[in-house]
Design goal:
CATH architecture of the largest domain: Beta Barrel
Number of domains: 4
Radius of gyration: 25 Å
Order of helices and strands: EEEEHEEEHEHEEHEEHEEHEEHEHHEEEE
Strand content: 35-45%
CATH topology of the largest domain: Elongation Factor Tu (Ef-tu), domain 3
Number of helices: 9
Oligomer: single chain
Shape: globular
Number of strands: 21
Helix content: 10-25%
C-alpha cells in the first residue's frame, strides 16, 4: 500500500537518551520498523521499535536498562509531531557475530509512574472529571493536555490505595454525562494529542472523520473509487470482520438480561432486581439503527436473567422496606449500582460488531474518532453492479489504531473499529405465542 501522498510522510529524527539525559544517540539508521498504538481502552500510548544493531551493541554500551527516553520527530500531511516514549522491555533479541536484532517496547512515562503512584484518600462531593484533572496535576504525574466532558453526579467514597489509572477506570464506568443524563459511561485514554476523558455518547454522536461526506471504501484495484469519489486517501486496502455475533457467549455473560442481587452485609439482607438491555437502549446514543438483539424469539433472551450480578449495597439506599414498591420507585434505588447495571450493557455491546481495516498512512486519525465505512456486498446483483453491504457498512468508532513506519520511509495505518448496532433495516421484535416448538420434533 502506498503512502497517503508521495513524499508526504517523513521520519525526521529518532533519538535515544540515557536515563540521566547525558547522552543522546541518533538511532534512526538502526530502525527497521516502528509501531505506535492508540486505544480508547488504554490509558497510555505504546510503541515498538525494531532495531538492527550492527557493531554498536547499545544494550551494553549505553547501557539500556529501562526508563531510557526515545524521541520521535515526524512530519505528515504538513503537520509535525514530537513524541516521547520510555523503554520498559527488550525482547526478541537475536545475535550473529556483530549483527543483532531486537525489539524495544515502550510506553508513555505516565504508564510507569502509574505502577508506584497510589491513591489512598477520602473523596467527598467531587465529580469524576474534576478528580481526574486534580490527580494528573499532582507531583508532576503528567503535564500533558487533558480534554474532558462534564459529568453529573459527585462521588463520595474512600479510595483504597488504587493505582491512578485503576481509579480513573472505576470512575469511567460509573460516570453519567451532562450531555445525556439518562445514559452512562466514559473512556479515559491517551492519544498523540494528549489525554481524553470522554463520554461514550459524545463519541458516538460526533461528526464522522474527516467529514460527514467522506466514506472509507473498499473497491477492486482496477476500478475507480467505490461509491463516493473520495480517492486513494480513503481507500480501504484490506478488511476483516473478526466478530459478527456469538449468542451463546452473550447469554453466558448476561448481555441481554441479568439479575442484580443487592447485598447489605451489615444487616444480612438482600434484594433482587431484573434488568434487560431494552431497559436502557433508547436512553443512549448508538452508531446505527439496528439493535443486535430482539426482545422476543424462541430463546426468550430478555425474559429471564442468564447471569447473576452481586453488588454491595446498604438498606438505607433502598428507602423504606416495602415489597409493594412500584417499578418507578425501584428505579430510584441505589443510584450508583443502577448506573453500574446500565454500564454492564453499554460496554458489552460497544464491542459487539467489529471490523479491522487498513488504510493509507494517516497520523491525523485518532482513537475515539467515528468514521463512515462502505463495504461492497459479495451478493451478485441482477444488473452486475456492485452494491453496498448495508449490514456491515456504516458508522464505526475507532477503538484502536496502529501507525506502522516501515524502512524509515513508509507510513501505514491499521484500525480496529467497533459499534453497538448494525446498518440496514431494523429487525422487528418477535413475540411468540402458543406452545414452544421443540427442535427434536417431540411436540
Amino acid at each position: 500500500m502506498a503512502n497517503q501522498f508521495p513524499g508526504d510522510f517523513s521520519l525526521l529524527e529518532v533519538s535515544l537518551y540515557s536515563i540521566d539525559e547525558s547522552q543522546k544517540i541518533d538511532i534512526k539508521p538502526l530502525v527497521l520498523e516502528i509501531n505506535i498504538y492508540e486505544s480508547i481502552f488504554s490509558s497510555a500510548l505504546q510503541a515498538e521499535f525494531a532495531i538492527q544493531d550492527i557493531g554498536e551493541n547499545l544494550i551494553s554500551s549505553l547501557p539500556i536498562v529501562g526508563q531510557e527516553r526515545i524521541e520521535l520527530y515526524i512530519s505528515s500531511d504538513k503537520k509535525y509531531y514530537r513524541l516521547n516514549f520510555s523503554v520498559y522491555k527488550i525482547d526478541g533479541r537475536t545475535m550473529q557475530e556483530k549483527n543483532q536484532v531486537y525489539v524495544m517496547s515502550c510506553v508513555s512515562i505516565e504508564a510507569l509512574r502509574n505502577e508506584n503512584f497510589r491513591i489512598c484518600e477520602r473523596i467527598d462531593g467531587i465529580k469524576s472529571n474534576d478528580i481526574i484533572k486534580d490527580i494528573l496535576g499532582r507531583n508532576n504525574f503528567s503535564s500533558k493536555s487533558l480534554e474532558t466532558d462534564d459529568t453529573v453526579f459527585p462521588f463520595n467514597m474512600y479510595v483504597p490505595n488504587w493505582r491512578v489509572f485503576d481509579l480513573f477506570k472505576w470512575l469511567s464506568v460509573r460516570s453519567v454525562p451532562e450531555y445525556k443524563k439518562d445514559s452512562i459511561g466514559f473512556f479515559f485514554y491517551e492519544t498523540i494529542d494528549g489525554y481524553k476523558f470522554k463520554s461514550v455518547d459524545t463519541l458516538l454522536d460526533q461528526q464522522s472523520y474527516p467529514s460527514k461526506e467522506i466514506k472509507y471504501s473498499f473497491y477492486q484495484g482496477n476500478t475507480s473509487s467505490y461509491g463516493n469519489g473520495s480517492g486513494e486517501q480513503y481507500r480501504i486496502g484490506n478488511f476483516a470482520s473478526p466478530k459478527a455475533f456469538d449468542i451463546y457467549d452473550d447469554l453466558r455473560r448476561g448481555a441481554f438480561c441479568h439479575n442484580a442481587i443487592y447485598l447489605d452485609v451489615n444487616r444480612a439482607t438482600y434484594r433482587v432486581f431484573k434488568t434487560t438491555a431494552d431497559d436502557f437502549w433508547d436512553k443512549s446514543s448508538h452508531l446505527e439503527n439496528t439493535k443486535p438483539f430482539v426482545s422476543g424469539g424462541a430463546a426468550q433472551m430478555l425474559s429471564r436473567g442468564s447471569r447473576f450480578v452481586y453488588r454491595p449495597s446498604t438498606i438505607s439506599t433502598w428507602g423504606q422496606w416495602n415489597e409493594e414498591q412500584t417499578d418507578k420507585e425501584k428505579e430510584n434505588i441505589d443510584e450508583i449500582n443502577k448506573n453500574y447495571e446500565k454500564a454492564f450493557y453499554r460496554y458489552y455491546f460497544l464491542e459487539y460488531n467489529q471490523l479491522d481495516i487498513s488504510i493509507p498512512g494517516d497520523l491525523s486519525n485518532r482513537a475515539g474518532n467515528v468514521i463512515n465505512v462502505s463495504i461492497p456486498s459479495p451478493k451478485k446483483s441482477p444488473d452486475n453492479k456492485v452494491q453496498r453491504d448495508e449490514r456491515i457498512s456504516g458508522r464505526y468508532l475507532v477503538t484502536s489504531i496502529k501507525h506502522s513506519i516501515l524502512n524509515r520511509s513508509e507510513l501505514r495505518t491499521y484500525i480496529t473499529l467497533s459499534r453497538d448496532s448494525y446498518g440496514g433495516k431494523s429487525l422487528p421484535d418477535i413475540n411468540l405465542t402458543g406452545s414452544q416448538v421443540n427442535l427434536d420434533g417431540t411436540n
